[in-house]
Specification:
The complex is a heterodimer of chains A (305) and B (296). Chain A contains 15 helices and no strands. Chain A is an all-alpha fold and 305 residues long. The longest helix of chain A is centred in the last third of the chain and has 46 residues. With 296 residues, chain B is mostly helical. Chain B has one domain: MetI-like (MetI-like fold, Orthogonal Bundle). The C terminus of chain B is likely disordered. Classes of the chains: A mainly alpha (305), B mainly alpha (296). At the A-B interface, α1, α2, α4, α5 and α6 of A face α1, α3, α4, α5 and α6 of B.
């Protein structure tokens, strides 16, 4: 069988040479399609990114820094970091628990559970905020009780945190479930048979195995948590310096025609988006390399056999 | 023997993980969602209908669904094109274009909103030239469609891309060797293979666009009856402390998005089945390929 492996590459490239003309388009068609793609993505993706930075720096670096150093802007940045800092870890723990139950076990009602977990993805951001107003607002179901105990959730920080948790709810679970499912149980079973405890198995075997999927889920969750606008807008009450997150601060500045300041704060959020894309690309690249390595190993194993 | 609800496994932690999952899901998602329906049920049918079928609400549905459909259709065509070009061709900067496709997922919607408005406003980079030929892009229905095209852009690309990537060239080679023209091969072989995935992406883009708020409110102009989307109508009612009205429209939107989940799931399943069958075909045919590779 060793001969097969050695012979195959040459064979493939020979076929490719022959079939190139039949299964691809003429040069003119190819470049027209590439041109259309570049145009479309250029107009819809690169232009908005470019305009954010162009507008942010239009009035010079000094104005840019001043817009970010302003107390209201700093308060908005702090609140955004706080909301994401609470929402992301909570959804991370939930995502791991959900992925463990769904990815490693077979039970009745599993696909219903997956649908329910993904539910927040299909709810409009405005509605996501509204449901908390209906629950905790003054007119809401728990409103009178909260008012009696002097607890404020809506138009306060807890409401913002709750709305952020809701809109970022499925991210980690959504990324982790397929990864855990694909890995199967063999490695965990081996660890348990060799005497590892349940937690040891989880921390030393399962977690390292899914770390890239986990990182990807967390980074997406964080991007949405820091950038959420609609849901947070409903529950915040827009109190400057107190319940304004970065996206809400951008809105206020923009509606006051303070474009340079609005785009300065927006440029920070755009930077966050770029970092998110960078990490995503790096994670995918690693995953692909790992898969290629795995394929190579199994091919070598097969060759030996 | 009782009914087994769970397949036995030696892995620990099932009870803890599932229990926590269900508790957290109920507290943060299911109970708040139920609260909206509970609140809506306190309205009489007449009150509910009066809000949900008011001319202003109907106009907002027409705009929301019309612009979402238009955006999703643009993405169906261009998303398939982008996926095709990214999988099949190589050109300078391809890696960069590929990774930036997910930008609408990563960029906060408010940032996208003000950026698009600035580009398409009458003195913007594209709004200027468009205004010169008499097209009003920002503060019009077209602006809403542009914003909804932006936020739905990754869906079709990302669902078609893996299918195209996994597609073996054997079928196309067979079609070509049997005398099919490139166009015939595309229409009869390639298109049917990627269609389920493309439609799944289309439906997902549509569903996402229907609920979208942040990227639209800046560019729409927000004129009642003309450029007011449904999520904004909810917002307006909330600002006027009309909780009952906001709830009625919100519940209508929730029902629509839950109903949309059904075709999306069906399309997804169809797409997965297609792919599984295609993979099975490839696996079955691979021994032959190997045999051909054997030295005579």
């Amino acid at each position: 069988m060793g001969g097969t492996i050695a012979l195959n590459p040459g064979n493939i490239s020979a076929t490719r040479k022959v079939t190139r003309r039949a299964t691809t388009e003429s040069l003119a068609v190819r470049w027209t399609l590439i041109g259309a793609t570049v145009m479309f993505l250029g107009i819809f993706l690169f232009l908005p990114l470019a305009v954010v930075f162009a507008q942010a720096f239009e009035k010079g670096l000094a104005t840019y820094w001043a817009s970010l150093r302003e107390p209201d802007a700093l308060a908005a940045i702090r609140l955004t970091l706080l909301a994401a800092g609470i929402a992301v870890p909570l959804n991370l723990v939930f995502g791991i628990a959900a992925a463990w139950a769904i990815g490693k076990f077979e039970f009745v009602g599993k696909s219903l559970l997956i649908t329910l977990i993904d539910l927040p993805f299909s709810v409009s951001p405005v509605v996501s905020g509204l449901i908390y107003v209906l629950l905790f607002g003054l007119q809401g179901l728990m409103g009178p009780w909260l008012a009696r105990h002097n607890l404020q959730i809506i138009f306060a920080v807890p409401g913002i945190v709750l709305a952020t948790i809701f809109v970022t709810f499925p991210f980690v679970a959504h990324e982790l479930i397929p990864v855990l499912q694909a890995q199967g149980q063999e490695e965990e079973e081996a660890a348990l048979v060799l005497g590892a405890s349940g937690w040891q198995t989880f921390f030393r075997v399962s977690l390292p195995n899914c770390k890239w999927g986990l990182l990807y889920g967390v980074i997406l969750c964080n991007a949405r948590a820091m950038g959420e606008f609609g849901a947070v807008s409903v529950v915040s009450g827009h109190i400057r310096g107190l319940t304004n997150t970065m996206p809400l601060h951008v809105e206020i500045l923009y509606n006051q025609y303070d474009f340079a300041a609005a785009f300065a704060v927006a440029s920070l959020l755009a930077l966050l988006a770029l970092v998110t894309l960078l990490v995503k690309t790096a994670v995918e690249w690693r995953a692909r390399r790992q898969a290629a390595q795995l394929a190579l190993w199994s091919a070598q194993e097969e060759a030996k056999a | 023997m009782g009914i087994t609800l769970k397949k036995p496994s030696i892995l620990p932690g099932f009870g803890l993980a599932l229990g926590y999952t269900i508790l957290y899901l109920s507290l943060l998602v299911l109970i708040p969602l139920a609260a909206a329906f509970l609140k809506a049920s306190s309205l009489s049918w007449h009150q509910f209908w009066h809000v949900v079928a008011s001319p202003r609400a109907l106009a907002s549905y027409r705009l929301t669904f019309g612009a979402s459909l238009l955006g999703a259709l643009v993405n169906l065509v261009f998303g398939t094109l982008v996926a095709w070009v990214l999988v099949r061709y190589s050109f300078p900067g391809k890696r960069l274009f590929d990774s930036v496709v997910d930008l609408p997922f990563a960029l906060p919607t408010a940032v996208a909103g003000i950026a698009l408005t600035t580009i398409y406003s009458p003195n913007g980079w594209l709004g200027g030239p468009l205004a010169a030929i008499g097209i009003k892009a920002a503060y019009s229905r077209l602006g809403v469609a542009i914003a909804l095209t932006f936020i739905g852009l990754p869906f079709v690309v990302r669902s078609v891309q893996p299918v195209l990537g996994d597609m073996e060239k054997d079928l196309e080679e067979a079609a070509a060797s049997l005398g099919a023209s490139r166009r015939q091969t595309f229409m009869r072989v390639i298109l049917p293979t990627i269609l389920p995935a493309a439609l799944t992406g289309f439906a997902m883009a549509f569903a996402r666009a229907v609920g979208e708020y942040g990227s639209v409110v800046f560019i729409a102009g927000n004129m009642p009856m003309r450029t007011e989307i449904t999520p904004l109508l909810i917002m307006t009612k909330l600002d006027q402390f009309d909780y009952a009205g906001a709830t009625a429209i919100a519940v209508t939107m929730l029902v629509v998005s839950f109903v949309l989940l059904l075709p999306i799931n069906l399309l997804h399943r169809w797409s997965a089945r297609r792919e599984a069958r295609a993979n099975a075909l490839t696996v079955n045919s691979s021994p032959n390929t190997l045999a051909e590779g054997e030295p005579a």
